Input
Amino acid sequence: MLTTNLLPSSTAWPKTASDTAFWTILTQTLLPPYVNTCRWFAGKARQQTGFSVQTIHSLLLPDGDVSFLLILEASYADGVPEHYLLPVSFLTKTGAEELAEIPQKGRIGELELDGQAGLLIDAIYDERFRQVLFTAIYQNQTIPQATGKLAFHRGKGLEEGDDNLTSRVLPVDSSNSAMTFGDKYFLKLYRKLFEETNPEVDMVAFLTDESNFTHIPAFGGSIIWKQTNADGSARPDVTLGMVQRMVPNDKDSWMQTGDYLNDFLYGVPQRMFAIREDVFDKVELLGKRTGEMHCALYKPTREGEPADLAFAPEPFTDEYRAFLIKRFEDLLERRYALLIDNYTKLDPLAQRLAWVFMEAKEMIETFIADFRTRPLDSLRIRIHGDYHLGQVLATATDFVIIDFEGEPESTITERKIKHSPLKDVAGMIRSYHYAVSAKLFNSTETDNLDPDHLQRVSDRWFYLIRDTFLDAYLDVFGAPHPLFKNNSEINFLLLIYLLEKAVYELGYEISYRPAWVKIPLKGIIDVVREIEKIRLSDGHSVPDVPMLQTGLLQTKGA
Ligand SMILES: Nc1ncnc2c1ncn2[C@@H]1O[C@H](COP(=O)(O)OP(=O)(O)O)[C@@H](O)[C@H]1O
Ligand SMILES: O=P(O)(O)O[C@H]1O[C@H](CO)[C@@H](O[C@H]2O[C@H](CO)[C@@H](O)[C@H](O)[C@H]2O)[C@H](O)[C@H]1O
Output
């Protein structure tokens, strides 16, 4: 098995940490093709100009061997370089059994080091490496490194006595790597790295330590690289990993909602509109849990107590308004450009929807600009930031909210900016709209139905579910609501965030799922209609945005 294309070096594995030439050769040979096959590498579509190993951390394994945590720098023709975590182990031929267990996606390549043939692997597939990480967290270890130290921190959720659990890598296909310990703890190793604590660690640690909200997996610990410069001065922390309690679950809420919609679908051809009561119960429960999460994140400073500035609520300042408007305007420009570039690839119905979006440009811009001066007394807090049905695990009777990393397109600093929690609410409402649209317009059961009728059925399901979610959500705080001034502010903010989310999604779908582009476009147009109503009722004239037939999402005959 290990006979071809061995990359030779005279340095023994443990000594390679200081052999710069060795790593330079690797970044020119084995690493680029390997990294480009990895799900976690986000630079595949960009013009790459090369990789380099920026930093190497060493971890001593229980048997005296060593694994390295490589910080890889990926450079591109345009834009700033990115940094990725790649832990590596070297398994020699003698460990034939272990070698056989390494999946293809963990095999970086064959090497011959100091006369020993072996395989360079992603160390997450090395049980010894996983064990060292977990033990270091359990023991709150700090391990000095050439460029600072690795600080392992144990959180409240990691129980006494759980220091010797067997581990395995989880087959989740995501942008990070997941492993479990004793099927009780879930360790996420972050792959794309940022200078600043990952918002997920902030949020999960805060909710575990400072609140009674139990519908997140409790915080079990973190792995932080405390960087220093060559002169010993400190640099921003880099989060490498986080442990949480493992949540037994069959599925996430996206799948669960899909199951409910399958039941609903059977009645549709018979012109029967039936949503089971337990579906409403679940939607209500999720609204309630969402409200409770925001309640837990709302931490007004009490008299005599020091303010926790990272989580203290803030008003809608001019600075925030300017930030949101600029971000929205930039997003809109990028989306219009993307839509124009891809227009001819869209089917005729998507093209019609795209036209309405184009025609509404001026009205959307005016609506966003309103945000600069409109009086707003609601408050902003830290929020989930990327909230949708896929981020909620469904347990037997309840829900557990995961993935607090925030919006993937935003910088880490942006992800920590406080927003109205209605941004999360808008995320979930968009998700219900996605769920019903994707199901009703892509199923054989509804293939032959009149598209206008189908659109009405879809809208009815969506409005009922949306209102159920929203009512249950708003009920959590009671009246007067501490975070929202009044219904008019709630409506305005919801529209802004719904629009922003749908415009964001438009880009995601053009890039990843062109057949679904119609879903966010329909979401945008629904908001445009609402804006029209508001402006007309305020006595404004509105630009002439064309009306459309219903049946907007139907792909048949396109
Ligand atoms: N605490 C947990 N317990 C059980 N499964 C989890 C837990 N956290 C995440 N998962 C599973 O791992 C998947 C990826 O987790 P997520 O936090 O969304 O990572 P990523 O940011 O890499 O997408 C989730 O969709 C879920 O299936
Ligand atoms: O990978 P992430 O969870 O960070 O989110 C990205 O991918 C999501 C799709 O997996 C995407 O969500 C969109 O599609 C969902 C259905 O697949 C739907 O429930 C969401 O409402 C919709 O936004 C998300 O936008 C993107 O950031």
Q: What stands out?
A: Residues 39 and 175 are 6 Å apart (CA to CA). The pocket of LMANGFYV (ligand 2) is lined by residues 254, 386, 388-390, 408, 430-431, 434, 505, 508 (CB under 6 Å). The two ends are 51 Å apart (CA to CA). The domain at 129-245 is CATH 3.30.200 (Phosphorylase Kinase; domain 1).
